[in-house]
Amino acid sequence: MAVSFLSSVPSFLPLLPPRTAISPATAHPFHTARVRCGQIKTDAIASNDDRFSRRDVLQGFGGTIALGLLVSSDHMVEPAFAADLIQRRQRSEFLSNIKGTLFTAIKNNPDIVPSLLTLALNDAVTYDKATKTGGPNGSIRFSSEISRPENEKLSAALSFLEEAKKEIDSYSKGGPISYADLIQLAAQSAVKSTFLASAIRKCGGNEEKGQLLYSAYGSNGQWGLFEREFGRSDSEAPDPEGRVPIWGKASVQEMKEKFSNIGFGPRQLAVLSAFLGPDQTAIEELLASDPDVLPWVQKYQRSRETVSQTDYEVDLITTLTKISRLGQQINYEGYTYPVQKVDLSKLKL
C-alpha cells in the first residue's frame, strides 16, 4: 500500500479525497491510522514515477518538514519520515544503474551466463536450516571456497563480477555493493538475458521483434519481490565445506535431498535445471529419469515452446527469489546516503 505523507500535513488536507466516516472513539484531529513506513512496497514508488506530484513536493520543500511529523494510533506513536521515500528512490536508482551495468557486461560476454547461474546457486545453497548459517552471503568469493570441487570452472564468473563491481562501486553514493547482492543480481540479469534470447529466437532472430515480444509477453513484472530483497550482507569467512553437491556428478536423488534440505522439492529442482551446469539439456535428461521430477521437467519444456513461456518464467523467478535470500536479514536502508537539507528561508514561494 503506498502511503501519502502529505496526509499528515494539515495545510494539504484539502488536496486529499474526503475521509470515510470514523467513530468518535477513534477520531484524532489529523491522524487516524498507524503507518509503518517499512511496509510500503517498493514497486508502488519506483515503478510509477508519474502517479502523483507528491515526490516533487517532498524533495522540494516538504521533505524537511515531514521528517518531524508523527502519525498516531490508539496505542502507539510512530515517526513517518519523508526520508523513507527518499531512501527508496536512492535504492531504486542505484539498482537500475546496476542492472544496466550487468546487462551490458553480459551482452558483451554471453558465454558467461551458465557460470553466473551456477555461481549464484552455489553461493546460496550453502544454507543450513538447522544452524541457520550459510546462504547467499558472498562467501564464495573467498579463494578457499571458490577453489572447491563443486565450484570448478566458476572462477571466471567471479572474476567477471569483480570487474563489474569496480564500475558499480565507482558510481555508488551509498557505499560498495556487497558480493552477496552482486552475485544474485548477476543471476537475475543472466536469467533475463536467456528469456530475451528465447524471444528473439521465436522471432526468427529479429532482435527488434524479439525485444517487442519480450516486453509484451515477458514476465518482467514478476521481479518486484526479488528486487526488493536488496541489501544482503557479506560473510566474513567461507561457509563450511560439504554443503554443495558437484552437480555434474550428483545423482538425481542427491540433488533432491539437497533441495529438500533447503526447503524445496522436485518442482524447484526442475525449474532450476539451467543453474546445475552448462549443459541444460543433459541435466534435464538426467532429471527426467526420476518419476518425481519428470512431470515438472516436461511442464517446463512445454512452457518454453510457447510464445510467452509464462509458467517457466514465473516459476523460475519465484524460485530464484526464494533461494536468493535464504537465511539473510535484508537491510532495506542499504546503499542510501544523506541528502543536502533544504534551507527553507531561501525558498521563494
TrEMBL record:
Q: Which Gene3D superfamilies match?
A: 1.10.520.10
Provide the alphabetized UniProt keywords.
Answer: Oxidoreductase
The Plant heme peroxidase family profile domain covers: 98-277
Q: Which domain of life is it from?
A: Eukaryota
Q: Which GO terms describe its biological process?
A: cellular response to oxidative stress; hydrogen peroxide catabolic process; response to reactive oxygen species
Q: Name one Pfam family in it.
A: peroxidase
Q: Which GO terms describe its cellular component?
A: chloroplast thylakoid membrane
MF GO annotations? heme binding; peroxidase activity
Report the PANTHER family cross-referenced here.
THYLAKOID LUMENAL 29 KDA PROTEIN, CHLOROPLASTIC, THYLAKOID LUMENAL 29 KDA PROTEIN, CHLOROPLASTIC-RELATED
The protein's name in its UniProt record: Thylakoid lumenal 29 kDa protein, chloroplastic-like
Q: Which gene name belongs to this protein?
A: LOC111481050
